[in-house]
Amino acid sequence: MNINMTLIGQTIAFAIFVWFCTKYVWPPISNALHERQKKIADGLDAASRASRDLELAQERAEQTLRESKEQASQILEQANKRSAQMIEEARDQARAEGERLIASARSEIEQEVNRAKDDLRAQVSHLAIIGAERVLEASVDEKAHRKLLDELAAEL
Amino acid sequence: MAAGNEVSSTYYIQHHLQNLTFGNHPENGWSLAHSAEEAREMGFWAIHLDTMGWSIAMGLLFIWIFRKAGKLATTGVPGGLQNAVEMVVEFIENLTRATFHGRNPVIAPLALTLFVWILLMNTLKIIPVDYFPVLFNKLGVEYMKIVPTTDPNATLGMAIGVFCLIIYYSIKVKGAGGFAKELSLTPFNHWALIPFNLVLEVIGLLVKPLGLGLRLFGNMFAGEVIFILIALLPFWAIWLLDVPWAIFHILVVTLQAFIFTTLSVVYLSAAHEHH
Predict the structure, then answer these.
(1) Fewer CB atoms inside 10 A, N or C side of chain A?
(2) In whole angstroms, what separates CA B1 from the centre of its chain?
(3) Residue B165 has pLDDT above 90, yes or no
């Protein structure tokens, strides 16, 4: 318990340990600590940035989806309208065509009838002329007239 | 050792409180002291081999562990040793940042050295008081007091180290003139009161290392004496008192290391400040 040279020895040992610690022990540990702190801070930053990016991307994706849905419904609507229109047009055309066909058939029939009438008329007149000729040739022979008239009537 | 009679108890206590002293004895020359009497006769020119040996061993242990951790230190995920070491380093860094208001790269490592070194030296006290003395007795060494901080030489030696730094930084920061002015013109800024101020301030300055060293020594020595007294009880009763006292000393050991470190940093901070 006496005060002696141990005092000085301890002071020297203390000085050496402090020097060594300052020089070789403290810096690497302290540096590693601070670097790790920085790394963690950077990592957290990056994470929050990434989550923000993700949010934005999700928003954009939703918007795109909404837009495309709208477009699709628009296209569908247009197509529906177009098809209805086309059907209407086709119906109209068909009707017009049918009417036209009917009209032409009717006119043809009429023509046919007229032609037949004309033919008939021509033949009748021809027959009348022939009958008249016969009448004129045979002259007033009742029997002959009768016969002729009968023929004529049969021919009509 | 059970208490047989009073002579053997006294001898036991004294034996456990005697350092292994090597010095220049007036009669025997340079030799190991064989009694407290001889150690006293050696005067200043003696050295406590056990104090020096154990304190240097603890210092080297500190340096070795922390150097190893420093070499392995990565910025990635730390392992067990690195974790523990970094916890201590961070603790000291926060302590220094809170108490020390200057810029000095030596303060934090100094605080780390003080804290861990004193902690390790104090922790030696948890080892049962008889283990090492008996072991060294078997090896032919008469005395072995393994806790360096129960030796005032060790604690005052460290306090002197801190004191030298206080003086050094006071002069470095304020200049020799500034330091002298601070000593002579505070607290009363009048030329006639310079001698009074000087006495006050110099005492104040000298009390710092004395208080540092004696506080640590007093706490550790008292604790050690209690441990020795407890060891005098019958063997089956020792644990009854020894265990609570040892658990309590886990606190004391850490607290005293912490106080020594904090006060050193505070004193050094004051040395860096202009008044």
Answers:
(1) C
(2) 29
(3) yes
Over 50: is that where the pLDDT of A81 sits? yes
pLDDT-based confidence at A138, cuts 50/70/90? Answer: low
Total beta-carbon pairs less than 8 A apart between chain A and chain B:
138
What burial letters (b/e) apply to A50-80, b meaning 16+ CB within 10 Å?
Answer: eeeeeeeeeeeeeeeeeeeeeeeeeeeeeee
Q: Can the peptide bond before residue B187 be classed as cis, meaning omega within 30 degrees of 0?
A: yes
The pTM score is: 0.74
Residue with tokens 């392992």: B79
Q: State the total domains in chain A.
A: 1
Q: What is the mean pLDDT of residues B36-41?
A: 83
Question: In A, which residues are within 8 Å of B23 by CB distance?
Answer: 4-5
CA distance A43 to chain B (A): 12
Average pLDDT over residues B192-214: 91
Alpha-carbon separation of residue B28 from B34, B35, B43, B240 (angstroms):
11, 13, 13, 45
The residues, any chain, with a CB within 8 Å of residue B76's CB and separated by 6 or more, are A36
A2 chain-B contacts, CB cut-off 8 A:
21, 39-40, 42-43, 46
Contacts of B89 (CB under 8 A, 6+ apart): A26, A29, A30, A33, B112
| B152/A1 touch (CB, cutoff 8 Å), yes or no | yes
DSSP-derived 3-state class of residue A36: helix
What residues does each domain of chain B span? 6-272
Task: List the single best residue of A3, A17, A35, A37 to mutate versus B (max B Cβ within 10 A).
Answer: A17
Give the residue numbers spanning the domain of A141.
45-155
Most confident of A89-93, B77-81, B104-108: A89-93
Q: Residue B255 in 3-state DSSP?
A: helix
Q: Residue A122 domain-assigned?
A: yes
pLDDT at A140: 57
Which chain B residues have a beta carbon less than 8 Å from that of A9? 47, 52, 153, 157
Residue B3 has pLDDT above 50, yes or no: no
A7 inside domain = no
**Cα–Cα distance, B243 to B267 (Å, whole number):** 36
- Does residue B7 surpass a pLDDT of 80? no
What letter represents residue B146's amino acid? I
Task: Please give the mean pLDDT across all residues of chain A.
Answer: 89
ipTM score here?
0.87
- Among candidate residues B130, B155, B154, B157, the one with its CA nearest the CA of residue B144: B130
**Percent of chain B clearing pLDDT 70 (strictly above):** 97
